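Subject: Interface between my chains keeps coming out wrong

I've been trying for a while to get a sensible model of this assembly. When I model each chain on its own everything looks fine, but I need the whole thing in one frame so I can look at the contacts. Pasting all components below, labels as-is. Any help appreciated, I'm running out of ideas.
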Amino acid sequence: MNKIFYIVTAFLWINLYPLQAQSRKGNVLIKNATVLTITNGVQEETDILVENGVIEKVGKGLSAPANITVVDAAGKFVMPGIIDAHSHVGLEVVNEPTSPITAEVWMGDVVDPFDVGIYRALAGGVTISNAMHGSANAIGGKNITLKHRYGTSNPEDLFMKEAPRTIKFALGENPTRVHGRAHGIQPRSRMGVEAVIRNGFNEAIQYKKSWETYNKAAKQKNSTAVPPAYSLRLQTLADILDGKFIIHCHSYRADEINMLINVCKDFNIKNIVFSHVNEGFKVAPELAEYTMGASVFADWWAYKFEVYYSTAYNAAILSKNGVVTSINSDSGELIRHLFHEAGKTQRYGGLSDEEALALITINPAKQLGIADKVGSIEEGKQGDLVIFENHPLSVYAIPQMTFVDGIKYFDIKEDENDQRIKVSATEMVETVYLKEDDHKCMHGVEMFTETGNFFSTH
Amino acid sequence: MKLNSNIFLFLLSLLPFLSYGQIEGEVVKPRGGKFLLQHATIVTVTEDTIENGSVLITDGKIEKVGSNISDANATVIDCSGLFIYPGMIDAGNRLGLVEVNSVAETQDYAEVGNVTPNMQALTAINPNAVAIPVTRVSGVTTSLAVPSGGTFPGTAALINLNGYTPDQMYTGFKGVVMNFPSSAKSSTWDRRSEEDIKKDAEKAMKTINDIWEKATTYHQLSTAKAELQYYPEMKQLAKVISGELSLLIEVNAASDIEMAIKWLENKKINAILTGVSEGWRVADKIAAASLPVITGPVLSIPNRKSDRYDAAYTNPSKMLKAGIKVALRTNDAENVRNLPFNAGFAAAYGMGKEEALKAVTIIPAEILGVEDHLGSIEVGKSATLFVSDGDPFETKTKIKHVFIDGYQVPMSNRHIRLYQEFLERSPGLEK
Amino acid sequence: MSVFKGHNLFMQMMAWMCSLFSLTVLAQSDPTGEKRVTGTYAITNATVFTSPGHSVTQATIVIKNGLIEDLGKNIKIPIEAREINGDSLFVYAGFIDVAGNAGVGKPATPERPNDFDPSDPPHEIVGITPYREVLDDFDAEGEEIADWRKEGFTLAQLVPKGDGMMPGKTAIAVYGQKGSSNIIAASAGFSSKFDAIRGMYPGTTLGIMAKWRDLYKNAELSAEHQILFASNSGIIRPEKNKVLESFFPVIDKEVPVIFEVSDELETRRALALQREMGFNLVLTGVSEGTSLISTIKEANVQVVLSLILPKDKASKKEIEDASSETTARLDRVKEAYKNSLKLASQFEKEDVAFAFGTQSAKSEDFMKNMRLMIENGLSEEGALAALTINAAKILNMDKITGSIEKGKLANLVITTDSLFKKGSQIKHVFADGYLFDYEDTDKQKEEKDEDDPVSGSWDYAAETPEGSSAGMMTLKKKPDGYQGTITFDDPEGGGKKTNEMKNIEWSGNTLKFDFDVDVKGMHISVTVSGDISGEEYEGKLSIPDFGSFPFRATKTPDSNHNI
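Reply #2:
Try treating it as a single job with all components included. I did that and got this:
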């Protein structure tokens, strides 16, 4: 029986999924759940109706429209799809580690829809991730916000096209090691990181001006104005200055966070989120006042020197100081249990359920500029939902079903082994990996340094 | 909160859960003596749970367990509404052997050389590692420090997480580590081909067999009182052959586990399989060979891309159900504090709370042969235990007190001190 | 952009031809005895497949001056013609390779300047050399050409072999006689691939995509500038930029971009660039992606499938007491294998014309792979069309080749039986009107086996944790052992370095040697050891305190003779 079953499911994957991906909006009625709305408290024995991918109604005793799938969630918890503001899942390439500024590169070019990590994230209730450039460069690339519509072979099906653009910055050890230590160019120190960023912005101002001058002249009759050289890099930096991007900055130490806050003040940049930000707790008042928030690890520390003076109470301190705080994964492993990472803030700092859940829902949504569309269970928002056995902040929580746009992409009862979309025609012995090293900030970066050592780092 | 008195009040408010919270200028250190923990629910692990019970701690040991215990000389700690558990044992990690992993100067878990069983992890334990107090406030009191590296990287040692010298911390188990030849890739950046991996594994297998033969010869000759040249590597391995030390065999891929089981046939040694991340695939064979297993981390990704997403979560329960003795480990360094959460996931994914609790208390104690003094709340055992306000696997639960070898350890560490300083920073935004 | 009209294909071609012909004027007869007596041939009484699906029996073909002079029944055979009796023979149009490397060498990478900055490397070091002509590195007498001609290939688009994202311009050559230039067109296409030279910008696919957009936009602006300059006074002199100027014919759609892709996602990337910029696109090396066929069709993009098929490991694999899980997984591998074989037939079903390219393929696998595709649904007509008329159309040369018609190039394949039938053998190939006979095919092979297995040039790749590192090793036999050099990626940044091999040992099948690498003042001695089997070398590269990594090398064809 098993063999036939597997063959059948293999075919289903090949044949059904592309169809599903095309009809991307679903309808579903979830009944009798304990609904963790995030923005409107906990609602017991409540129904959620999703039609055409959008939450139409949240209330008691909703009647089912004709032909709709009804899911009985009595005794279960429903929360909005979890959002990861810093991830590298679903990317073929993470870093373009060859220049201190690579604002021109775009992660949308290297999305890998075949990465089974996307499915594993879904199985952990994560419906949206910010697929980011790595941390090799002071200014990395443009990121892409993904909706985990797993099953397609077309990367664009995963793009959350309505999300605003975000761009990766990185401070501290990583960019100084990659460029200063390995290649002997700036930045070699935290001074250099600041200088590189300021240089970039100032050049962008000049660039913008030269184009403005040209465009104005070109409008004149019989203009013979010569167009300036084009630079996708400087154009992107100019767009940052014009507020067209949200900066997501990999950072650890308080001093470097303070530095970038000052740079942003000088260039009148408002849209900035600090990522990892292990020493964010030291500058919580500044983060609250000047930024769109901080996206942190629940408890990672001590794997490198700049995270030695960390505290697992970081998220709690930031939240209590009014910083919009989220918990990110930066890891293909961690992304599978962000609900548990959020739960840790209850041990380390005693956050309430509502505060803890906000860390993985509405707060990352705010940081990605999509809080009007996702991040809570409200009528009119997208139908991204997770059904849990046990409260999601409990260590015993088990995601049961995950919906994106009202379409079910994960169901613990139906899903079997081998969720790969693409299979190699020659891989006879399946590779066994002992450790997950992919999907991290420094993925793909030369780590062959003076000491001849490899680093495991983030 | 600009007034000092307010800060003081605020600090007081922390005291209920940081009962040992640090007050400015106070020196916080572990405290020995006689303690009476009263009115608690005592989860003994090996016996029935006792409601409204007491534990009397004297001279580092559990002197009494039961109801209606009193002692006029003991410091009484009211545990109404609270629970007492035996300290949790992480059966494999690098805690104390490394401070900051990217700083090579602080890595003391690996030596140069392929055959270095004589390297002693205990020697390199830093009792003042910042991560030790960070770990023990979670109720993890005991940790197996494991060296890594070559085929025989060294000798692991079990330590309790309180003490000023490694000797004070040592708590009764040492075992020689063997990295069994692996047909798996060490990580996703290991680009060796199938054939190369196979060749490497075959070569490593040959090394192991050669070395083992030498060690056997060394053992036979030294038992016969022959005068042998100084050969510390073989001397250490001979202790495994004689049964004095256990052999911790790190092995993960299913086919490697089968090979290891085969290799162990007719070898009368105390072998423990560690890692065993694909144990679920060959659980019957491990059970048939009666080999105990130390597995983890539970929170890890599956070994194969085609594996079900929860393969690592369900591995401990599948092995347990096949009849294997399963203990858990984090294999971590700075985040050994996550052991209870690893146990929680194993519990949720089929192991059940009771068995998961055993997998971090009495089972590792039995596997490591220290069940005479660790792993449960029993009279005569070491007073290595903790008091919590609920299920210790739940993140919401607060750990109230931790006792290690009868010492009440401070419920503070650098993470907590930073919290205390920065929750309401002074000056705040404006100076 | 009329300013470039003068640079059309024909002019460039003529310039090339002229320069080459001038070199071959010799006031000599042929003392070697190699010259043919007559260039006129008549194949008589043969079954001629003039185009896929159309055949004439008992027909005669007359070849003269490199062209098909006449064709049909009852044709007068010129008196100077050498006759080939075509009774029981089958004649097809010569095959066309739309993306091949036969005879193409790899240009040397220039040394890095002292002030090398990996974030802004010179174009020629980072593989942005679209101005290069593949013909500069083309050897019309290369052994691979003979190998492919033996399989029926008579004409090819030559794709440059250089590293990097834009290695140069393609050219079109006929696989004719030695001594002739054999070049039909230079600057036929703009070659590109997702090949980054690591350690310098652009070092990954991310950078390549951005660089493509940046260069294209700047090329458009540069063109605009040149037009302004040409027709106005008071304009700043445009800076000559040979990289940007190479884009001009692409922007004007005079030549296509020949984009080599290795998988489905790369295909999508090339299509994305095409969509954004609108250039004419020929995808080459396509080996997967059935779901993309409709997109390709809509985009009106030309497709060149790879001739490489995956090795059939799956259906041969036998596993003792396999679990249902293992069986299920292997079934998926088999399915994937089947799908690879079916790809060509899928394109045919969707009515998308495609051709084939030989890049990286092995000539000895050619017919076997064609038959596999046919067994998996590709029609014989479709297969023949892909090898002939479709290919000619993609190259915009269907007026002169691709079928057997009067006036077309005399490129023919003559077989003993129906082309794709098992047992059918190629007996003659006409290329450029020259006749090549194939009788005893095993002799050459034997000679080759007697050659020294070590001497020669080897392309190697070492897989290190941070990516693969490639280079060349060259070994030479000396009375007292071997001497050799090895090139490798400079660990201090991009570019190649060359060092002497040391302690070269050769015994049994094992070749071992050391070489030194200097990194930041550190002196590392690297050891390579492995076994040679035929043209393959497999072993490992060991760095002290660092580990061992797989190391593989392949002997470059013809390398024995070049030393």
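Reply #3:
Confirming on my end. The CA atoms of residues 351 and 393 of chain B lie 13 Å apart.
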